[in-house]
Structures are given as C-alpha cells and as structure tokens.
Protein: Formyltetrahydrofolate deformylase
Amino acid sequence: MSHRSDQPATSAPGDASAGAPTHWVLTLSCPDRPGIVHAVSGLLAGLDGNITESQQFGDAGTGLFFMRVQVTAAAPRAELESGLRALEGEFGLAWTLDVVGRPVRTLVMGSTAAHCLNDLAFRQRSEALPVELVAVVSNHTVLEPLAQFYGIDFHHVPVTAATRAEAEARLLALVEELDVELVVLARYMQILSDDLCRALAGRVINIHHSFLPSFKGAKPYHQAHDRGVKLIGATAHYVTGDLDEGPIIEQDVERVDHTHGVEALVALGQDVERRALARAVRWHAEHRVLLDGHRTIVFR
Amino acid sequence: MSHRSDQPATSAPGDASAGAPTHWVLTLSCPDRPGIVHAVSGLLAGLDGNITESQQFGDAGTGLFFMRVQVTAAAPRAELESGLRALEGEFGLAWTLDVVGRPVRTLVMGSTAAHCLNDLAFRQRSEALPVELVAVVSNHTVLEPLAQFYGIDFHHVPVTAATRAEAEARLLALVEELDVELVVLARYMQILSDDLCRALAGRVINIHHSFLPSFKGAKPYHQAHDRGVKLIGATAHYVTGDLDEGPIIEQDVERVDHTHGVEALVALGQDVERRALARAVRWHAEHRVLLDGHRTIVFR
Amino acid sequence: MSHRSDQPATSAPGDASAGAPTHWVLTLSCPDRPGIVHAVSGLLAGLDGNITESQQFGDAGTGLFFMRVQVTAAAPRAELESGLRALEGEFGLAWTLDVVGRPVRTLVMGSTAAHCLNDLAFRQRSEALPVELVAVVSNHTVLEPLAQFYGIDFHHVPVTAATRAEAEARLLALVEELDVELVVLARYMQILSDDLCRALAGRVINIHHSFLPSFKGAKPYHQAHDRGVKLIGATAHYVTGDLDEGPIIEQDVERVDHTHGVEALVALGQDVERRALARAVRWHAEHRVLLDGHRTIVFR
Amino acid sequence: MSHRSDQPATSAPGDASAGAPTHWVLTLSCPDRPGIVHAVSGLLAGLDGNITESQQFGDAGTGLFFMRVQVTAAAPRAELESGLRALEGEFGLAWTLDVVGRPVRTLVMGSTAAHCLNDLAFRQRSEALPVELVAVVSNHTVLEPLAQFYGIDFHHVPVTAATRAEAEARLLALVEELDVELVVLARYMQILSDDLCRALAGRVINIHHSFLPSFKGAKPYHQAHDRGVKLIGATAHYVTGDLDEGPIIEQDVERVDHTHGVEALVALGQDVERRALARAVRWHAEHRVLLDGHRTIVFR
Structure:
C-alpha cells in the first residue's frame, strides 16, 4: 500500500507549523522480535506524542509483527519520519504515516451496475467515509448522471478485445495524472491484465459475489439457485494477478430461501456487495488493513 | 423421505377412536396446475378439518407445486389416506401424512467430535426437538459416555478399508431393526459407499464446514487461515452419491478475523456446524423440508 | 391498509380485456374456521386461476386467519371482486386485491438526514422496489437536490409550534391530491398529531433506532454509548397514535464495540435504519404485511 | 476484576524456575497520558519479553487508558510484579497479571433451565474454554445429574424469603472455601441482595433475555409475542446492585417471525442466551474484559 503520506511535501497535512498537534496514523510491519513496541513508543514519547489508539498483532505463522497507532503530536512530519527511518535498519521496519481522516484519492471503475458507486458516493458525502472520489471510469455511459450528481468527473473508456491495452494505458495515465491512491472495482465487468494488476498491486480493491459452496463458470447465481443455497455472500479483496483470488479484506452474507428467484438473488447479492465493499474501502482508507503474505490484518 | 406415517398401523398415532381431534401434518408435491389447492382443501373441509398452518410454493423452473398443511381433524387416519389416494391419479400427487410432533426415529453416526451429538441430544431433551435418538453408531468409542448419559444405545462399529462393506451392512441392519427413519452424520469421518447413499436416499443428513470461497483438498481450515477468510460456515444437506453435494437444507456462518488461529477457526466452525445441523434436523423432523430436484423447499 | 385496487376503476390494471391473464395478489383475513381456504381456492379455481404463491396463518391467540395468494387469472377484476364480496358475509372476510408489482404511490417525509430517502430512491430505480415516489415533504431544504436528482417533486413545509396544524393540513391535502397510498417517515424529526396518525392509520411507516435495552429520553445514542451496548438496531413499524409504538414490521441490528464513539454509532445506526426501512417498505408494497391486532403477519 | 494472579503464591503458575518462558497476560488501566506504553513496553523489553498480542484503547470520554498485553518471558513472576508496582505511583496504574490459559475457578448458579450450564460444561471440556467449573449451586435439584455427568460438585441450596440471607451466606462461604474467582448466573431465577452483589462486584456474570424495545414487568416473552417483535436477544453483563443493569459484556440476537409462538420464542431465546453467555465467560476468563466506568472494553 502506497500512501501519499510518505512522500516529502512542504504543504502536506500535518505540517501545521505552530503547536497545534496533528492526529497521525502510523502503520508498521517487521519481523517479530522483542523491543519493537518499546522502540516505537519511545520515539513517540520522545516527541511528546499521545497514543489514542493502538493495535498490534504477531503472526506466529509468518513470524511477522504488525502495528497500527494513532497518536497526537505537535512535532513536524519531518521529525516523525526521520525517527521512523532510524528504526528501519535495526528492525527491518516498513511503515506508512498519514494524517487521520485525510481523504484518500480514489478512482472508481464501473460498468452498468450502479449500487456500489451510489453507496460509496453517498457514504463519502454523508458518513465521513474518508475518500475523495476523483474520477469514475466506465466502459459504459449509464453511470454518468450518477457521477455528475455527486460532482465526480466521469471518463468513458470503452473496451474491446482490440482496445484493451489502450484502455488500460488510459487508466494508468489517469491514475498518474490525478494522483490516484486507490482504485475501486465497483462491479467493473472487464478483466484487468496481469501487468495492470501488478502495476497497481495493493491499491486495487475488487468486490465479487461469493457462495458456499463456490460455483465455477458462468452464471453463478443460476447455479446457486439450482443448488438451493441458503446464503449468498460477497467478498472484497485486493486484486493480484489472479483477479478473484487476492487477499480478502471483508466478507458478508445474506440469508435467502427457495422463494428467491435468480433476479431476487441478484438484488440481494447487490446489497451484500455494496455493504462489504463500503467496509473494505473505509478500512483501507483509514489505514486499518495491512498485508501479511496472502492474508490481511484488519485492525478494526 | 419416508415417514412412519404412511404405513398402515392399527395403533398408529392419530387413530384415537373417539372424537378427540388429531393434529396432522400433510406434505404433498405434484406438477403445478389449477385446482390442486381446491381439491386438497376440499378433502380436508369434507372431513371437518381445520387448517392451522399452510404453505405452498410453485417452482416456475421445475413446474412443480409443493404444499405443507397442518390440520386438526377428528377423522381416522384411514379416511384421510383414502382421500389422498383418490387425488394421486388426477394430480400426480406424492404425499406424506404424519402426526404433528411425533418423534422421528433417528440414528446418529459420529467419530470423535462430540459437539453435534451433544447438541442434538440436549435439544431433544430440553427443547422439544421432535426426534427419538434410538442409537449412536461410531467407529470410535469416545462418544460412548455421552450417549450413555442421554440414555442412547451406543454401537461401536470400527471401520477399516477391509471391513467397510461389513460395517455398512451392520449399519443397514440397525436401520432396519430399529425402524430408523433418519440417519444424521454428526461429523462422521468415514465416506459412505454410493450403494449405502442410494439405499438411504432422502433419509441421511450430513453437516460439513463451508467457506467462501470453498477450499478443495486436505486441511480446509488451514487453507482458510492462509487465505485470511473473514467468515467460516457450515452446510447441512441430504446425502446423495456425491457426499458433500446433496440438496442443501441449511447454512450458517460466523465472523472471524486475523487473530483466529487454525484451532480457534475449528472451534468456531464447530459452533456453526451444530447450529446449522440442529435446524436442519428439526425442519426435517417437522416435515418442513421437501425435495425439488436438487434443491430443497423449506417451509419454515 | 387501503389499496388503490379495491376501488372501482374502469381502466385499472388488471382490466385488460382480452385473455392476457393478470397476475393478482389477494390478501384476506377473517375469524378462523373450517372451509375458508376451500371457499377461496374454489372461487379462484372457478375462474381458472392458477395459484403461484400462497401463505396462510392461523393465530391461535387472536382466533384470526390470514392468507395471501398470488394467482394468475384471465377473469376481469369485477368478477374476482364480486366473488370475494360473496364470501364477506359467510366468513366475515376482509380482503384486498391488487396487481402484482403495481407501484404503490408513496410520499416520503424527511428532515435533514438523507440516508433513508437515498436508499429508497435508489432501490426504486434499480432494484424493482414496487413504489412510485410521488413527493418528498420536508421541514428543511437539504433534501431538495437529492429529490430532484431522482425526479421526485419536493415540497418544503416548515413546521413550528404555531404552524403544526397548518403543516399537517398541507400534508393531508397532498396525500389526497396525489392519491398517496403510503407515507414513509424517513427520519422525519417532527411529531405527528394523534389526529393525523388516526387519519392515515395503517398507511404510515416509521423507522427509528432501537437498542437492547431501550433508552428513554433524549440523546439515546449517548446513553447507548455510556452503557457500552454491543448491538445497535432499528425498528420499522406502522404509526399509530403512540409514535414509536405501532405494530413492528421489521427489525435489524449491527454489531458495535467500545471503539465506536457516538458519531460512529450514529453512522452505523443509519445503515441499519435504511436496511430495515427498505425491507418494510418492500413488504408493505408487495402486500406481504397484514395487521393482526397489535402484531404484523409478514408473509415473506 | 480480581484475579488469582495478583496474589503472592510461591507455587503459582508462571514460577517455573529454569528458563522455560511463560506466556503472560497483563491488563492495565490508568489515566491517559503520554509515556504509558513506552514505560510498560520498556519494562517488558528489559525482561526480554516478547509481545505476542497487544491492544490499547484510550477513552476520550472518561480520560482513561486501557491495555492488554500477552508476552512471553522467562523472568519470574516476582520480577514482573515488582516492575509493575514501580509504575503504579507514576501513572496511577491498576493492573492484573496472569498466565495465558490458566483455568479460572468458576461457580455456576442455576435453577431449572439447563441450557447455559450444559453449554459451558461442554465447551470447557471440548473447546478449551479456560475455566474450571468447581461447583454448581442451585435452588432446585434438576441440574444435579448434568453436573454429575461433567464431574462438577453439586450443591442444593433452597431459597425462600425466610432463608435468603442464609442461602447467600452459604454461597459466600463456598466462594471463599473453593477459591472461586468467577460466579456465573446461568438463568438463576433468584434475586441477589445488594450486599452480595457488592461483595462480588466484577466477579459475577449474568445472562438475561433482551428485546427491542425492552419490556418491563412480568412475562416478557408474552409481551414480545403480543407486540410481534422480529428479533429476540440476550445480554451478558456484570452484576452490580441493579441486577439487570450492570456493564454489558456481550449481546446477540436471533431472527423470529409471526409463526413463533411464545414457547418457540423461549426456545430460540435460550439459544441466544447460551451463545452470548459462553462468549462473555470466555472473554472474561481470558482477561479480555476491562471495566471503564459503566462500560466494558472488550479486547477480542
């Protein structure tokens, strides 16, 4: 996960000069060994920082240690950063530093289904979801009025087999140009190339339907209906090369029964999808999701 | 599903001679066409029956119609049965008739895990789960004290590759001898042969863990842990030839997170398993589950 | 519940003259006694109706019987209606008849919170929620752009202690003029008078937050936070004289913990509110909710 | 919460002399100010402790800071304790120290309902619930065979208005004599006196049914049925003077509908009760529950 916050920036949030303390969020991971917490808390205490929220987890399986701290401190960003850099060598520390609540610059990709975009845009506006929706990119035009209502720039980028490479280049250019930190695949019905997935690794969240058992192949809702499933679900996850198989951030289910036809299953599925996606986006934007190999640590 | 109730029996429940009305439960299915409900309700009205609960469902996909009726009536069983038989030809009706609340004779198969047996036995005793637990059959002996505490006969039937056929013959003999209506695989860790599955089709309920996505192969909980799933689930279903693939009766999930190690996942999984299994057994025993091809209709 | 459908109307849906069968939804209630189902199914069979969905329930406590039937029939509405009227006397039958899927004319009242209005409008447009949103009435103006985006007429009706009676008169006039069948109080933060509640009895659905235990008095979220509740919920119900005490249609909860401040509780509460309200409105609009004294029967 | 662990004990767990590190769980609370985490982590690092799990929370409302740490360390208990005592003055620290997984000595009180006792005893035996059930105390005798099956001493202590004081004295004597750390009211249908509640403050967990809205007075399930609630719930909480009003540890709900009679509601309610109680007992026994005024912090 790359965050704006670890880039030098003279006017970045958190640089308020005179005394008004900033509320920072710090995440870090490193091989697990004694002394990490003491070193980090020492750094923060030395800067007169007051820890307001902190969670740690040591994964006995991978031998990695993870930590997320929210701390109020009056020290300038540079001082925090140099303190953290000083720990990199000793502990093999990887870290990110951001200001609590800073809106993460987010690009939403969709096709025709509006439920996820509508939900994210509404929550951004009314529920303090800490994202800034800088663009909607779609291979169709049906989402344009919704984007306009929420004041989000809409980019129509049609995709055919022949133009896929060009379309992905256009997307990457937008990501660059708009300083996009997070791409959300909000029921975007096109496969992304492996190259694109790698280029944006850890910065793309996808949502897809999930069933117990899972159904391979086409028309999964038809298969689920034929099998008479009693639960339908959705999984939000980071995208890796294998589109539907990256580290899981959030999952949810809804109860169904024999009276639900395929259309009703799809409608209920959309409800679960937007709920799970909204949570995943919020947790990511609040720097609550850390990668632990193929798993996620979610410090809710 | 075969029920005691469709066998002629002079002293069967519901034959109380003088006037005291019996509370019947009737299930039926047939090709969907106008007039079925009228014909059935006419039969019941003609016997002065009072419908206390009724549910119907027409599956537009399979063209089948399903109905479950609870009715109080003073008429003797023979009269009800001959009325129903009269409708068989006209509507292609399949039906079952039983007395509401009659305990279904149930045999539980287990191996070493006790959670499902403990839960069923406790609910039978204290929550009016309408089953009579006539035997526990196990390839181990650890469940024997628990069975004894609940006053259930325990049969130790070890299974090896060499004795599988013999063990299954012993099971079938017990089913016959004890007049068993329902077999519950309560974490029984042996594969049943196709022949046995067919012989007991519609009368065996299995419970197994389920994940989104599902994990094939050995050690599914380890796979689920490695993938960082956020939900673990369980599926209760009728057994067909393909052990884990029969018609689903009930599913449930429990929320987990990165702090749950494999053992904790297993413990939570057991909680979901016993809950889903108990519901499936109750609904089956109350004749609320009807088969619709590969799906179930559950009239809860 | 009063439905458009029981009014004489020459061009009402379902009057299509020639042969194309209509999909009807019929609800009825009456004192429970033998023969009702037979009489109703006889009426429908006599009109060559084909029952596609049917649910019945006899409440042993109140002695009332409830039924909801979906039936396809080519007979004109008048014939169905006269058949039903013929049963009124014999069985003490109360009934409604409507066409499946006909949008119920709905007026939404709100104040400043947009989550419920946004959710209903979005579901109406994209999830086949069978309502027509004919007006938004608010004592504030913040909901106006949202209403406009969804093409719903917006009426600003300010309310002060001095103008309450006038405001309610204006509401009643709108209900009359726009032929409103259902009023949804979507976080409308004004108390309705007893007279208004009575005038619209059975046609007003309200949503409010709910806790276990419940908290009386002001600032319930603050109270819930102080008490450290682990669940917050919402209840959708019909409005009677006592605003928060009418028959319950739907309830739902969300899990919270000590890290949720009052603001976070409110945000999660809004999520539960819109979910529970959307379900209640759908079930009402699909004629799935029948009143049984102070309870509801919900034929989902 | 008083734990065995903060008492001097020469042979206490964790005193293993030679080198084999002990897995400790430490909880602490104090007024929130900079430097606490640093001081505690410094103490642990100085003892070569390795933190395996840690959670912190600062309550902005009460100004209190809470922390739970699991740490492996080879240092003897006395060294840890003296280090912690050294911090008491500086930070106003309150703390507890125990060995991870040490079974908490628990006394269960019940009347006639067996579901909670059965669930706790089963989980203790098969799911590593870290409690030792040292006694069952009941004003009835129906739970005696169940207690015997699980090998728990059963004490029949009848209660009448005349003998209440005597019965409570007997209970307190048992608590003393058996070194009881936790008392679980597992549907114990007698009111405890204020004096007893105070004497055992923070050491008694109660479970009771909960509804939205709540129902005061007798027969709450009848009231809930009359009102047509769609959810029934349960709340597990610490007992204070006001029996049903102490700090909430856990809550859960189950969905119900109009077909559930009062008996069915009670049966489902028991399911929710035992689930919520088992979680509360587990979290308490694992020292995951900290008191924050009238709220609990649950570090799950």
